From TrEMBL:
Keyword Signal on entry: yes
InterPro entries: ModA/WtpA (IPR050682)
Highest taxon of the lineage: Bacteria
KW Signal (keyword) present: yes
UniProt-listed GO biological process terms: molybdate ion transport
Pfam families (UniProt xref): SBP_bac_11
Listed name of the protein: Molybdate ABC transporter, substrate-binding protein
Signal peptide as annotated in the record: 1-20
MF terms in GO: molybdate ion binding
Keyword tags: Signal
Family: Belongs to the bacterial solute-binding protein 1 family. WtpA subfamily.
Length: 313
C-alpha cells in the first residue's frame, strides 16, 4: 500500500511537471502588445499552451539572440528586414515569414493646433509652424522611430523640401522614448502631432491623417521608391544603413528554441484565420498569402501549407 501511494504521488508530480512545461517564450514588438494579449489567450484556449511573451523593439529582440543567445522559441518582428539581415543571414534562424502590414500616419487630436485645417496638401507646412509641437519616438531603439525619420525623408523627397527632416527633428520632442510613450504624449497634450503606426490610432482612439502612398511605407508597389532614402544603422548590429521599405511584420523560430514542436504549433496558429480576425480588428492588414524567405527547404512541414510564396536568397 505504501509503495502504491509513493507511485501515485510520483505520477502526480510528474504530471504536474509535464503540465508546467507547456509554455513557449515569444518576443514581440510593442506595436503588437494589445492584439497579442488576445492572440495568446486564444492560443491557450485552443491548445492549453501558455505564451510567455515579452515586448521589445525589434532590433533589441534580435540582439538578445544574436549577442546573448537568449533562449527564445518564437520571434515576431515589426520589421521583417531585422530577421532577414540579422537572424537568418547570420545563421540564428532558417526562414522568415511575412504575415501582416501596417502604415505610418500623422496622428493628432481634435484640439491639436491647426487640426481643423490640416490635410494632405499642407500637413508638412503645419508641422514646421513655430507654435506646433511634434513628437518622435527614439529612432535608435525601434522600427517606429527610424520609420518616422524615413517618412520625413520621403516627404522631403516627394515635396522637394530641402532640410525638412532636420527642421522637424530639431524642433521635435525627440527623447529616448518608445513609440507608446509618444502616443501618451499626444493624448496628454504634450505634443500636437506624432508620426506613428495607423494601428495605434485605431487602438488608442486619436485622429490621424493618411499620408501619400509614396510616403506612408505601406504599398509594396512603391518599394523601389522607398529605398531611395536610408537611415543610419540603429539596430546596433553592424549594418551600415537601413533603406526604407514597406512595413511587413514577420515571424521566425530561432535556433535557441528548446520547444520547436510547440513553437511550430504557435506559428501555424499565428497564420490562421482566427488570428487574422484579431489583427484586423486592431487595424493591421493581414496578408492572404504569407511570404517566406531564407532557407525554405528547412521550413517545417506543418507550415508549408500556410505559405503561398517561397523565395530563396
Amino acid at each position: 500500500m505504501k509503495r502504491f501511494v509513493i507511485l501515485l504521488a510520483f505520477f502526480y508530480l510528474f504530471s504536474l511537471s509535464a503540465y508546467a512545461q507547456q509554455y513557449i517564450k515569444v518576443l514581440i514588438p510593442k506595436s503588437l502588445e494589445k492584439s497579442f494579449s488576445e492572440i495568446s489567450e486564444a492560443f491557450y484556449n485552443k491548445h492549453n499552451i501558455k505564451i510567455k511573451y515579452e515586448s521589445n523593439c525589434s532590433g533589441k529582440a534580435a540582439k538578445l539572440i544574436h549577442d546573448y543567445g537568449k533562449i527564445i522559441d518564437v520571434v515576431v518582428s515589426a520589421d521583417y528586414s531585422v530577421i532577414d539581415n540579422v537572424l537568418v543571414a547570420k545563421g540564428f534562424a532558417d526562414w522568415n515569414i511575412k504575415f501582416a502590414k501596417n502604415e505610418m500616419v500623422l496622428g493628432f487630436r481634435s484640439d491639436s493646433k491647426y487640426a481643423k485645417n490640416i490635410d494632405k496638401a499642407n500637413w508638412y507646412k503645419i508641422l514646421l509652424k513655430p507654435d506646433v509641437n511634434v513628437g518622435l519616438s527614439a529612432a535608435t531603439n525601434e522600427p517606429c522611430g527610424y520609420r518616422s525619420l524615413m517618412v520625413l525623408k520621403l516627404a522631403e523627397l516627394f515635396y522637394g523640401l530641402n532640410g525638412f527632416t532636420k527642421q522637424i527633428v530639431d524642433k521635435a520632442l525627440f527623447e529616448r522614448k518608445s513609440d507608446l510613450d509618444i502616443v501618451k504624449d499626444l493624448l496628454s497634450k504634450k505634443v500636437d502631432y506624432i508620426i506613428a503606426y495607423k494601428t495605434y490610432a485605431n487602438e488608442y482612439g486619436f485622429k490621424y491623417l493618411e499620408l501619400p502612398k509614396e510616403i506612408n511605407l505601406f504599398s509594396a508597389r512603391y518599394g523601389d521608391y522607398y529605398k531611395q532614402v536610408k537611415v543610419e544603422d540603429f539596430y546596433g548590429l553592424g549594418l551600415k544603413s537601413i533603406p526604407a521599405n514597406c512595413i511587413f511584420y514577420s515571424v521566425t523560430i530561432p535556433h535557441t528554441t528548446q520547444k520547436r514542436e510547440l513553437a511550430v504549433k504557435f506559428v501555424h496558429f499565428l497564420l490562421s484565420n482566427e488570428v487574422a480576425s484579431i489583427l484586423e480588428k486592431h487595424g493591421f492588414f493581414v496578408l492572404c498569402e504569407p511570404e517566406v524567405t531564407g532557407n525554405v527547404d528547412k521550413l517545417d512541414k506543418v507550415l508549408k501549407s500556410d505559405v503561398k510564396y517561397c523565395i530563396k536568397f
